[in-house]
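Run log // design_07
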């Protein structure tokens, strides 16, 4: 909490009411049932300005993510678009979401029957804790407008930092353009990235697009 007060971007004076939260926070701590509830209250307009960028993780979760290259979840990442819809921006290959046929561009309309408009995307209660066996039923709307209910169960999901199906070559105005989707900087990314670059080099690409749009960072040595 002290670090949050010291370094959080939105604690600058221009964000009205944010600094005032800390005046009584220590006395109010017993009223928060979980760390997630506390963090959600301290965020500045959670879901509007701070859309999941600020979070906490246990030491075990961090080690599992960067060393083991996996996390417990449904296997998708979601963002809020300009229409305030919850749209999938990435689906991990072989994950529960992938096996259920979910794809990038799908929209989450409801969770366990509650419309997404009445939920907080950043609250742990929405999708449940990062534990195997957690079940949620999602109402999904495809880009074409069709809706269906999908039941997903959380389990270990491999991060696959450089998915093989996203190493491609495109012909653009007579030039060969190589494309690599680099999902995250973790220990097992190095060899995969080298392999992808070698694969594209062997085809004689003229240009390279390294897609880091959804890369949340990670190990500096990588």
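design_07 sequence
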């Amino acid at each position: 909490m002290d670090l949050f007060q010291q370094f959080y971007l939105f604690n600058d004076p221009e964000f009205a009411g944010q600094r005032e939260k800390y005046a009584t926070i220590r006395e109010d701590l017993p009223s928060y049932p979980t760390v997630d509830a506390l963090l959600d209250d301290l965020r500045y307009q959670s879901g509007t300005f701070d859309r999941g960028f600020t979070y906490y993780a246990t030491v075990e979760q961090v080690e599992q993510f960067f060393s083991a290259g996996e996390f417990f979840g449904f296997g998708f990442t979601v963002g809020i678009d300009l229409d305030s819809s919850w749209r999938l921006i990435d689906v991990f290959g072989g994950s529960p979401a992938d096996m259920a046929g979910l794809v990038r561009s799908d929209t989450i309309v409801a969770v366990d029957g509650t419309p997404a408009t009445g939920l907080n995307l950043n609250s742990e209660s929405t999708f449940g804790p990062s534990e195997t066996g957690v079940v949620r039923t999602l109402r999904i709307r495809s880009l074409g407008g069709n809706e269906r209910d999908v039941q997903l169960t959380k389990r270990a999901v491999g991060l696959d930092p450089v998915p093989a199906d996203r190493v491609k070559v495109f012909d653009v105005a007579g030039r060969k353009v190589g494309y690599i989707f680099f999902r995250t900087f973790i220990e097992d990314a190095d060899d995969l990235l080298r392999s992808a670059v070698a694969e594209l080099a062997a085809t004689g690409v003229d240009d390279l697009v390294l897609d880091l749009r959804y890369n949340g960072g990670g190990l500096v040595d990588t």
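The two ends are 30 Å apart (CA to CA).
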